[in-house]
Design brief:
240 residues, alpha/beta, seven-stranded parallel β-sheet, 7 strands, 15% strand, globular
C-alpha cells in the first residue's frame, strides 16, 4: 500500500459512524493522523477513535460557526497543523416540498451546506500556515439527480458541488477542493426507497463505505492539477 498519507493530519467530520467511520478507518490504515469530529454520537466516536489507533476526538455542533471556529482552534493547538479535511457530516430528511417549513430547511442546510463552507474556510486558513492541503467534500447522488421528496436535501448537496468548484478556484494553487458523490450506501435502516434505487443501479448492488473512501483517498493523494471535480461513486445510477 502506498504511504503518501503517512503522518498527514486529516480531520473527518461526522466520523463516528457510517460513511464517516469508513473513511476514518481507511485513512488510519493509510498511516494518516486522523482527527475524529462528532457531535451527539460520543460512544460511536470513541469506538472509531480507538479503532483508528487512539485518534483524537473533537466535539462540535456544526450548526454553530462559533463552535466550528473553536474546533479548528483546538486542532491547531493540539495537532499543530492540518493537512486535509473531509467534510462528511450531513443530515437527511424527507418531506413533501409543499410541507417543508423554514425550520425543516434550516435543519438540513445549516449542516449540509453552511457548515461545509465554514469548515472549508477554517481549514484553508490553517492549511495555508503550513503551505497548503487538500479538501474533499462529500456530496450525494441527490446533488446530481432530483428526488421529489428531498428537494431541500438535493438543493443542499447540489450546493456542495458548486461550492467545491468555487473554492477550488479561490484556494488554488495551494489547496485543492474536490467532492465525492455517493450513491446508495445501505445500512441496517435502509428504507424501501433506498431498496428501489439499488434495484435501478447498473452495478446491481449498493455501495460500501470503503468504496467511498477510495474516492476520498484518490483526491487526497492527487496533485493540484486535479481540483474542482465531483466524482460520483454510485454504481452508474447517476447515468440513468
Amino acid at each position: 500500500m502506498s504511504r503518501e498519507l503517512e503522518g498527514k493530519v486529516i480531520l473527518v467530520t461526522g466520523a463516528a459512524k457510517r460513511i464517516g467511520r469508513g473513511i476514518a478507518l481507511r485513512l488510519a490504515s493509510e498511516g494518516a493522523r486522523v482527527a475524529i469530529h462528532y457531535f451527539e454520537s460520543e460512544d460511536e466516536a470513541r469506538r472509531t477513535a480507538a479503532d483508528c489507533g487512539g485518534a483524537p476526538l473533537f466535539r462540535a455542533n456544526l450548526e454553530s460557526v462559533a463552535e466550528i471556529e473553536r474546533m479548528f482552534g483546538q486542532i491547531a493547538a493540539q495537532l499543530g497543523r492540518l493537512d486535509a479535511l473531509v467534510n462528511n457530516a450531513a443530515r437527511f430528511t424527507r418531506f413533501d416540498p409543499l410541507e417543508i417549513t423554514e425550520k425543516d430547511w434550516d435543519f438540513i442546510h445549516s449542516v449540509n451546506l453552511k457548515a461545509v463552507f465554514f469548515c472549508c474556510q477554517q481549514a484553508a486558513r490553517l492549511m495555508l500556515t503550513s503551505g497548503g492541503g487538500r479538501i474533499v467534500n462529500i456530496s450525494s447522488l441527490g446533488g446530481i439527480r432530483p428526488w421529489a421528496d428531498h428537494a431541500h436535501y438535493c438543493a443542499s448537496k447540489a450546493g456542495v458541488i458548486m461550492l467545491t468548484r468555487a473554492l477550488a478556484k479561490a484556494f488554488a494553487p495551494s489547496i485543492t477542493v474536490n467532492s465525492v458523490a455517493p450513491g446508495v450506501i445501505p445500512f441496517e435502516d435502509i428504507d424501501e426507497e433506498g431498496k428501489r434505487l439499488i434495484a435501478r443501479t447498473p452495478a446491481q448492488r449498493g455501495g460500501t463505505p470503503d468504496e467511498i473512501a477510495d474516492g476520498v483517498v484518490f483526491f487526497l493523494k492527487s496533485s493540484n492539477f486535479i481540483t474542482g471535480q465531483n466524482l460520483a461513486i454510485d454504481g452508474g445510477l447517476s447515468q440513468r
